[in-house]
Every structure is written in C-alpha cells, then in structure tokens.
From TrEMBL:
Coiled coil: none annotated. Keywords: ATP-binding, Cell inner membrane, Cell membrane, Kinase, Membrane, Nucleotide-binding, Oxidoreductase, Transferase, Transmembrane, Transmembrane helix, Ubiquinone biosynthesis. Its EC number is 2.7.-.-. This is Probable protein kinase UbiB. It comes from Psychromonas ingrahamii (strain DSM 17664 / CCUG 51855 / 37). It comes from the Bacteria. One of its GO terms (biological process) is regulation of ubiquinone biosynthetic process. GO terms for cellular component: plasma membrane. ATP binds at L130, A131, S132, A133, S134, I135, A136, Q137, V138, K153. It is a multi-pass membrane protein.
Amino acid sequence: MIKIKELTRLYQINKTVIEYGLIELLPKEHVPLAYRFMCACLFWISNKHQGMSLPERLRLSLQSLGPIYIKLGQMLSTRRDLLPPIYADQLAYLQDNVPPFCGEQAIEQIEKSFNKPIDSIFDDFDKVALASASIAQVHTATLKEDGRAVVVKVTRPGIEKRIQADLQLMKWLASLMQRFLKEAERLRPVEVIHEYEKTIIDEIDLMREGANTIQLRRNFLNSKLLYVPEIYPNYCTKNALVMERIYGIPVSDTNALQAQNTNLKLLAERGVETFFTQVFRDSFFHADMHPGNVFVSYEHPEDPLWIGIDCGIMGTLNKEDKRYLAENFLAFFNRDYRQVAQLHVDSGWVPADTPVEEFEFSIRAVCEPIFEKPLAEISFAQVLINLFNTARRYNMKVQPQLVLLQKTLFYVEGLGRQLYPQLDLWDTAKPFLENWMKEQVSPKTLFKSISQKAPFWLEKLPELPELVYYNLSQAKSQNKQLILLAESFNKQQKNNRKSYFYIAAAISLSLISALAYLQTDKNLTLLAGIPGIFAWLLAWRYTNKV
C-alpha cells in the first residue's frame, strides 16, 4: 500500500516534469492519453522554464530531483553515440558540477563523524568544495599528523532519507508493474529495484567505499593500466572519508589531453582493457566510471595511465556468469549466432523451451546489417540493445546481477569513443577474451584450482570413512522411507477409489429416494434412503482415512 510520503514524492516528480516541459521529449502522437488527463487535472502547474532549451531543462530537472536521477543523467551523458551532442554536453555538467552544500555544514558533518574539532585533524582545510556530486562533495586539506595533501569526502546532510523516499516510491511502482504489466515477468522490476537499492545504499556508506578502494588499489598496484588513490583507514567513517589527493586531467577534457600530446588511441584501448581485466581477472569492477570519476595522469602522456576514484559502486560476477559472458562476447565477435542463441538458453536467460533455430535466425536478422559496417563504427552498446529487443520476443528475463555490468560497458565504450572516435572495441577486447578462455582450461589453471582446494580435501580425508558410512546409512534409511511412502500412497489410492465408489452410490441412492418421495412411494423412499445414508458415511470414512 502506497504511503502519503510516496504519493507526495510522486506528485513532486510529476510537478517537475510539467514545470520543465519534459513531455516535449516525446512526439505529440506518442504522449499517453492518461498523462494528458493527469496534466489537465493538475491545471495549476505550468511550464515555468520555456525560455530555456530542452537539453538544459532536462539537466536541471534531473538535478532538482536528487541523487538517483542525477545518476541517470551521468550515465546518459557518456552515450554520445546514442544522444545528440547538445544533450550529452548538458548532462555532462551532472558529473561533477552539482551545486555544493555549505562548507560550514561539511565541517559540522566531519567533526561529528570523527568526534574531534576539525583543526585537530587537518591544516588548511578549504571550506570551498573542490568538486560536488549527487551524494557527496570533496574538500582539500593537509593532514596534520604528517603534512600529506589529502581530500576529504563528506556526504550531503539528509541524503539517506531522501534516497529512501525515492526507493520506496520505486518499489511501489515496480510492484504495480509486476502486478499489471504483461512484460513484468521478463523485466523483473521488483528484483531490479532491490538490486539497485543495495547498490545505492552501499554508495552512501563511505566506509564501504574506503574498503572497495583499498581492494581495487591492491588489484592494480604497480599496473600500467590504472592508478587508485591511497585511503587512510584511520580516517574512515560512514559519512566522511580521507584519501590521497591525486593530480590529473579530467578524461572529458580532450583539449588538455591533446595539448600535452597524450596517446589517445592507447588511452582508449587501455580503458577497454582495464574494464575487462576487472571483470574477468578480478571479478570486481568499478561500476560508476562516468567522466567525473576518471582522470588521466599528467606523467608520461605517451604511455598514459588512468586514475580512478569514487569506488562507491562496485560490481561482482560469479564464475558461471563470467564464462557465459565471455562465450557470448566471443560468439558475437565471430558472428556465431547459433552459439549466442544456445548460450542464452543454456544460461537460463531465455526459457528452456525456446526454439534455438528460430532465435538464431532472429538474432542474425538484427545483427547482420549492423556488422556490414566497419568494426570501428559499430557500437557494442547498440548491438546489445538490439539483441535485448530481439530476445524480448522470446521472454528473455532481466538479469539483475548483469545490470551494473551493462551500465559500466556503456560508460567504457562512451569514454573510449569520446577519446578516440575510431576505437575498435571489438578488436581490443577479442584477444583478451580469447586468452582468458584459454586460461580457464589450461593445465596451469587446473593445477591452481587443485592447489587451492587441496588443503580442504586433506583436512576432510580422515573423515572420509565416516562420511561414506554415514551416506550409506542415510541411503538405506531413505530407501526405507521411500518404500513406506510408496505403500502409503498406494493405500491412499485404494481408499480414494473406494471413496469415489461410495460417493457415486450415495448420490444415486439419494436421487432415487428423492424421486420416490416426490411420488409418495414411502417404501421405495426408505429402501433407497437408508442405504444412501450408509453410503455417505462410508464415503466420508474412506475420504478421511490415511
């Protein structure tokens, strides 16, 4: 049941849509009749920003609605191959140009988090935020204990309550979809919202972000692909986090990158390699790689190094998902649509009774025209979108565990194409995936797997005779139970057959008795009625008899 709080938020969202005239994003013929009726009912609300361009209105509306909607705008800003440049440029302001909150509030939040006066922790704390995002903002400072330059990240006051209100509304809308929308079984909106809830709640906990950053830094220590700033664990709380200050060029500032002669082709290719390394080598990937969170080191522009910050949202995959993903990607690269269709069935992404040949033909019909273009011009994201639209006809279910991965892949391709428009994502990723697949079946991997499990096997070896005896005993016991269940079932079947016989007899005798009574034949009434009563009693007895 929706609460007053959720209804209020729903009203605010509709009010924002009307006030910013966002309905203009849809052609008039595609505006739902129900929405027009709702606007007529809310006659006191009107478009108050007609003097602004539609892209600017879209950006300001998302900004006013709060962190969940700002995140949506951040993701869309990287999809320059899907959005017109004027929209992408406006939404790019949401990456790190969200209006900051007051510096005094930030100090109050930090002092409350560390339970100390700010002067006892930092020197030169700058009250003016260095950057501000949807959930938190950062301030520069110098750590008092050793003079290191740091940044202090602090969450927005009251952010958790606002996010919870939006999540409750999303859950309510998702439950309505689940109940009334035909495609809900495939889209699984309730599961997707629960998955997103975990992600966003984790992001507002800066202690979790600190732990994620430490893990990601360890995975890429001394790597040429990615640098992750150091976290100072003694200064980590839920609402405040202190980390090393990094110096780099925002990845969106292509003019600055070109000015220092950065090898943009290599930089774009390393971005793709970094993504696949995180996913397939580490099973732990940065899932919020919008341009506001990614920088390029000033050092060695001919051998560029990515710098990643803000590890609040991290994704993980299990072995089965990784293998199916790698096989799917390789099948696409090789245009083996039969394999793509079969993998979707084997993984359970589409129902087991899906006709593979028909599914293969549908995938081929959608993908072949795309692959006629040069590989460098093909958007992998667009291929995925077309595939999902095709799979929708075969009741493909949304995989919540892959939502973050899909979003991150869109980010990576968007960034890569922004840096180097000729980026051949396919050619860059294919060798990596082929090598990974070979490693999964190599003797080295087999030996590593055995080595990891050997201590456990050795620990359990002395218990093996007891386990064998226990399982054999259990098997005997289970066989006895099965025999007893079979006997009980057979007995119940016999009782059911007797019950059905007596019910039929009782009904027949009751009808005869009723007809005889109507014809005033007392003898026949008694002759049929008394056995009929006994037949009903016997039917009841065998129906309840176990």
